[in-house]
Amino acid sequence: MGREMDRMLRLCAALQLPEVSESTSYGAPSLKVKGKNFASVRGPAEMVLHCPLEHKELLMEMAPEIYWQTDHFKGWPGLLVRLDVIGDEELSLRLEDAWRFRAPKRLADAYTASKP
Q: Which SUPFAM superfamilies does the record cross-reference, listed alphabetically (predicted)?
């Protein structure tokens, strides 16, 4: 699972997301912002990504080959992502969204203000 985490870390670094740390969530490698999980590796080609429920439904409808959920994730603000299908550009967008969703408001606002 190291390759998946390396990819996620590389994309977060390219986005210059502040306060990202490597951690674990339920024993799986994860990324956190200020101690709050926003992305986890779930298996050799899957990850769990936090997102608002309204975005989750839209993403699953828009790209079911990438985004999906099991019964366990229904009604929960996160979705499953097929890492072997999603490209770096799309994954970067989703990681940034997940980071914003979980970051403290002041940190998220400062990040947004720093963007050109």
A: YjbR-like (SSF142906)
